[in-house]
Amino acid sequence: MERKRWYKDMVFYQIWPRSFKDGNGDGMGDLWGVLEKLDYIKSLGCDGIWFSPIYPSPGADCGYDIADYMDIAEEFGGMEAFKKVLDGVHERGMKLIMDLVVNHTSDEHEWFEKSRRRIEPYTDYYIWRPARADGKLPNNWDSNFEGSAWTWDDVRGEYYLHLFAVKQPDLNMDNPLVREEVKKILRFWLDMGVDGFREDVITYISKAEGLPDDHLFPIYKGMPKYNHGPHIHEYLAEFKRDVFDHYDCFTLAEAPLVWPKQALKYIDEEKGQIDMMIQFQCQCADCLFTDYMPTKFSLVRMKKAFSDWQYKLEGRAWNMLYMENHDHPRIISRYGSEKYRTESGKAIAAAYLFQKGTPFLYQGQEIGMTNWRPADADMYEDVQTRYYYAHSNLNKSHKERLEKLWRSSRDSARTPVQWDGSENAGFTTGKPWFYVNENYKEVNVAAQENDPASLLNFYRKAIALRKSLPVVRHGSYKEHFPLDNKLYVYSREMEGQKILVVCSFSYKCVDMKIPKGFDMDKAKLILQSYPMAAGKTLRPYETRVYLWE
Ligand code: GLC
Ligand code: CA
Fold first, then answer.
1. What is the DSSP letter of 36?
2. Any idea of the CA torsion for 69, 74, 79, 83, to the nearest 10 degrees?
3. Contact 245/192 with Cβ under 8 angstroms?
4. Is the distance from the beta carbon of residue 107 to the nearest atom of ligand 1 less than 6 Å?
5. How far apart are CA 310 and CA 8, in angstroms?
6. Integer Cα distance of 420 and 223 in angstroms
7. Does any ligand 1 atom lie closer than 6 A to the CB of residue 146?
8. How many other CB atoms sit within 10 Å of the CB of residue 14?
9. Most exposed: 106, 118, 408, 506, by fewest CB within 10 Å?
């Protein structure tokens, strides 16, 4: 089937279902809540929804530990509510993509239960290894969340591999039967009418032959032996050939530690196996590789990451653009300023929404939700955060350890969406499953809905411009003044149409800078972040977009 690539004209909204909206008052977000808010999502100009996992799951990693791939969890409303949502999405001319988490399952998945008992054909569905003669673990790999990647299973009398939590055993993708299971799952949802998938840590599914030890230096662990493994392109091509090519759908691959050159092997429009990639460089302007190794925010680093992907993918592949998701703390608290919350939120929005690619928004980003800072570490829910807290910085003070979590934990961005200023931020009429950020009375959808100067309405305007101007979707990208550490200036150009985006990332006033060849007398100011444009000086985090046509 000829690919239509409709995703290039879209803007997606990511729903992390537990914290989006509770529809039945039990305190947990669900699909009834989503149904209530479809018009809101559409009102943003978003025409696609990505659901973080909504399948049955014991919840060891908030749904990324799946116990049944072909059902919807009862607490979210089950299959009945899901079908209503899917219809509601399609009736509004929108699309819906699911999270495909097949690097691992839950240890409560039926396959694992059978595999640990060596019941055929499940015996080799997972990666099992005996203890080594010297009593050591099968290899030195660390999991991403909970210490060693190997856990002993008494039932089977062997170790199993888990690159994430102990309750997330890795599937053995080298087993053709497992790949057939994946295809069955894909067809199941596509046949139901789902429009595509976001593929969780998909570059990890093929592990190095023989599972050799990893480098001992932590820095080299940046390239673990399970990322971009020997059969990765072969397996992805197989999924494409056997399934995706037969449907009008698209695929988005999450890829930790990938740079444009390598990304092209996956997403080149002629030779690749998937359509778009979630890269992490744009998340590393204030840290080294992960949020747990924070550094000072560097605008130059952020710009370099963006431009690198823009330039290197040009004409060959399509960028996925994002600033936030459920795995990182809130972006205003990191790249912007909580003091200038609205202003910096607008600069951040314009910094990515006018680039070439398909933008994604994460729930609450559009109203400028900021990091949650609990009073105590035991208030955290996330498995990664809890393990980190229990095992790291033990010689530091309680305050220092807690502040580290405020900066680094994924839970900073997983608090309920703040719908209004009423109790529990209008998220639920019951007792919320998780803490609501204290700033909800000030920061919420209702307060911004009718304020033309709000961040929410800035997102709406920016997205509407994106949709109405072909140059934003298809024009070529150019960055100006790349070494300037206060301004991000970039332009887009296409057959007689040109835009210039100027975003200040400074809390002080700075001089406006216009690149050569941009005639400001002929420019039309089409978007601005302050109610009234001032002249040559940009106020804190001021942002403007100009058009020539
Ligand atoms: C991905 C998900 C993250 C999850 C992990 C393991 O990185 O985005 O939330 O914990 O994979 O599935
Ligand atoms: Ca509920």
1. H
2. -120
3. no
4. no
5. 14
6. 44
7. no
8. 23
9. 118
- Check whether residue 23 and residue 84 sit in a common domain: yes
Q: In this structure, are 433 and 300 located in the same domain? A: yes
Q: pLDDT of 95-116, one tens digit each? A: 999 999 999 999 999 999 999 9
Residue 13 structural domain:
6-104+176-377+412-457
Same domain assignment for residues 246 and 210: yes
- pLDDT range class, residue 534, cuts 50, 70, 90: confident
Task: Measure the CA–CA gap between 535 and 524, rounded to whole angstroms.
Answer: 14
Give the residue from 172, 197, 218 where a domain finishes: 172
CATH of the domain at 539: 2.60.40.1180
Whether residue 354 is found in the same domain as residue 221: yes
For residue 532, the model assigns a pLDDT of 81
Q: Are residues 144 and 209 in the same domain?
A: no
Q: For residue 487, what are the β-bridge partners?
A: 504
360 and 417 housed in the same domain: yes
Query: Shortest CA distance to 177 belongs to which of 98, 105, 129, 121?
Result: 121
> What is the best residue among 164, 258, 280, 381 to mutate for testing ligand 1's pocket, by most ligand atoms within 8 Å of CB?
164
- CA 317/CA 311 separation, integer angstroms: 10
**pTM higher than 0.90:** yes
What are the phi and psi torsion angles at 153 (to 5°)?
-115, 115
Same domain, 224 and 328: yes
Cα of 410 from ligand 1 centre, angstroms: 10
Q: Is the CB of 100 under 6 A from ligand 1?
A: no
Q: What is the 3 state secondary structure string of 76-91?
A: HCHHHHHHHHHHHHHH
Separation of CA 448 and ligand 1 centre (Å): 31
**How many distinct structural domains can be found in the chain?**
4
Question: Which residues are annotated as catalytic?
Answer: 200, 254
Average pLDDT over every residue of 503-518: 97
Residue 129 forms part of a structural domain:
yes
Backbone φ and ψ for 545, nearest 5 degrees, come out as -125, 125
Q: Is residue 462 part of a domain?
A: no
